[in-house]
Write a structure and sequence with these properties.
This protein is of the alpha/beta class and about 425 residues long. The longest helix has about 35 residues.
Length: about 425
């Protein structure tokens, strides 16, 4: 089945589209319960556009088994080769991951670049990486993915080499490239471990603060929600993987307690394993959270897959026992109320919001507050009447449930967050020492 991409636009005679022309290939496997082909191709098209490719044609095939040499059947390979010649395509992008051998065989036939979904995602991450950490993470994942895929295209360059940096006098170009890549992987691993230690120290400094992490599919509206809750100015763009680095801010708007919110890298179905591993320190914000907010774009026809993908990552990180709230976002884009009703039936207890318009945010804030208060520990202290001026300061570290004025002292029933007891004991100790001196 061959279909022209709906997003393909003709270029006017006085405007030249310099983007590489891409042909997309989607696969539907029989009887494996995978997500619908149309949704997969829609997502692949969005990924290709985010990577700045000009999609000129979309091809799909139903398979019962994978061709070990070419992934797809020979007849479909010939069809794609004809499309490449017809449209002068620069690249072919598969929605499934190719083996190194399949990649080489297809490039040999198509006479153009062939990449798979994982490499496309890595390209997007590479384009969006801004900080030293994100750049190192993406480069590491890319090198690990590329290493087994180095072809023998340099075989004719097997001349003798020697000198500085050469371990073997007779390395071929491909041997040299592999060694250089392995050396670079080792350096990046060390660099990321150093960064991870820095992040671990930062997280330890926040151990006495209640931590909430936004987690969910890419472009589900996490960054917009972050801005609404904290007043931050996190980058918001209507494209996939606009946010790669975790952003951490204090929730300020209409919020009574000290709570920090982190915005994490967006997820996507079939995310490369090496990429998940490379973003360890970023995803550790999820591991360290007291509450997870699972954000879903409820206007997306594939919302069910978004929820499943998010849950899979939570399980993979081993934090399935952490308290969580399911937030169905972008209700402003849902015109049919029956869709919302169906999603609420499927997901009892979910909170519906629009991070764009602010609808439902008060309900979400109250849910975060309730989750916070459930974690508070009961504690009782007594202070002298002369220390009554400490009560406003105590409120900074605890929820005062009840105040009883006795004959010779004031009794306070408190609910304490993590670290609250230590802070109050320190406050009382300093006050008593000041009174004695």
């Amino acid at each position: 089945m061959n279909r022209e991409a709906k997003t393909h636009k003709k270029v006017s005679s006085n405007t030249k589209d310099i983007r590489e022309k891409a042909i997309l290939i989607g696969i539907e496997f029989f009887s494996n319960g995978s997500s619908p082909l149309d949704n997969n191709l829609k997502e692949l098209n969005g990924l290709a556009e985010t990577a700045h490719y000009n999609v000129i044609s979309i091809v799909s095939q139903k398979l019962t088994r994978i061709n070990p040499k070419l992934f797809i059947r020979k007849g479909k390979v010939e069809e794609v080769a004809q499309l490449i010649r017809q449209f002068s395509a620069d690249i072919v992008i598969f929605d499934e991951n190719l083996s190194p051998a399949q990649n080489r065989n297809l490039e040999s036939i198509f006479k153009c670049r062939v990449i798979d979904r994982s490499w496309l995602i890595l390209e997007i991450f590479g384009n969006h990486a801004r900080t030293r950490e994100a750049k190192a993470q993406v480069e590491l994942a890319s090198l690990k993915y590329a290493l087994p895929r180095l072809t023998k295209m340099w075989g004719h360059l097997s001349r003798q080499r020697g000198g500085i940096g050469m371990k073997d006098a007779g390395e071929t170009q491909i041997q040299l490239d592999r060694r250089l890549i392995r050396d670079r992987i080792t350096k990046l691993d060390r660099k990321l471990k150093r960064i991870d230690l820095e992040k671990t120290t930062q997280r330890k400094n926040r151990r006495d603060i209640y931590k909430v992490a936004l987690v969910g599919y890419t472009n589900s509206g996490k960054s917009t929600l972050m801005n609404q809750l904290t007043g931050a100015e996190t980058l918001v763009e209507n494209k996939l993987f606009a946010t790669l680095d975790s952003t951490i801010r204090k929730i300020k708007k209409n919020f009574p307690y000290p709570v920090v919110l982190s915005d994490t890298v967006g997820l996507i179905d079939k995310l490369p394993h090496d990429l998940i591993a490379s973003f360890k320190s970023t995803l550790d914000e999820v591991r360290d959270a007291n509450l997870l907010i699972r954000v879903v774009d409820t206007s997306d026809s594939n919302a069910k897959l978004q929820i499943q993908t998010t849950n899979n990552l939570i399980n993979e990180l081993g934090v399935e026992g952490t308290d969580s709230l399911l937030v169905l976002n972008k209700i402003d884009k849902v015109n049919d109320p029956d869709i919302l009703e169906l999603e609420l039936q499927r997901n009892p207890g979910a909170i519906i919001i629009s991070s764009k318009t602010g609808a439902g945010l008060n309900v979400l804030r109250n849910a975060i507050i309730s989750s916070y208060e459930r974690k508070l520990a009961s504690h009782q202290i007594t202070i002298k009447y002369e220390q009554a001026n400490l009560i406003p300061q105590i409120r900074k570290y605890a929820v005062i449930v009840q105040i009883e004025y006795k004959d010779t002292f004031i009794s306070l029933d408190l609910r304490l967050p993590p670290g609250g007891k230590e802070q109050i004991e320190k406050l009382l100790k300093n006050t008593n020492q000041a009174e004695k001196s």
